[in-house]
Amino acid sequence: GQWFAVPLQDGGFTLGILARANPKTKIALGYFFGRKFCNSPNIEAVRTFAPSDAILVARFGDQGIIDGKWPVLGSDDAFRRQDWSVPKFARIDLLNSERGILIEYDSEGEWTAQPIRETPCVASVLTGLPFDGMLGSVAMEAKLSHVLAGIQCS
Length: 154
Known about the structure:
The chain is mostly beta strands. It has helices spanning 63-67, 137-147; strands at 2-7, 13-22, 27-33, 54-61, 72-75, 89-92, 99-104, 117-122, 134-135. The chain contains two helices and nine strands.
C-alpha cells in the first residue's frame, strides 16, 4: 500500500502503488495511473485513486524506489490487500500467436516471482489481460512515458 511517483521521460510524474513486494526478489506488483503531474505529487493526491482507475498493472523491478529516483509518497492507511488483487496475466507463444498461456500468481501468500499455475489456452481468451513480463524501473519509465505521451500535466 505504498504510493510512489514515477518520473516520466518527457517531464512530469505519474503515480504508482505497490500492491505486492518481495525484498528478496526485488520484484514488485504495481498499479499505475493515467494522470500526469508537473511535479512530484504528495500523498493527498492519491486519495481519489482506486484499482479500477489503473491504466497498467505490472510486475516490475523496484530499483527506482530503492535508489530514491521514484519518490515514495507514503502509505495509504485505507489500503486493503484484497482490493488490490493480483490479476491473471497473459503470455503469447512467440512462434504461434494463436497459442497462449494463462499465468497465475499467488494473490494471498508471499509474493514471489514464480507463477503458481500456467494454463495453455487459445490466445484469444487472453485479450485484455496484462502481459506477463517484468519491466525494470527504466523500462517502466519508458512504458509509462509512451502511454502518457501528449497528456498535459496538472
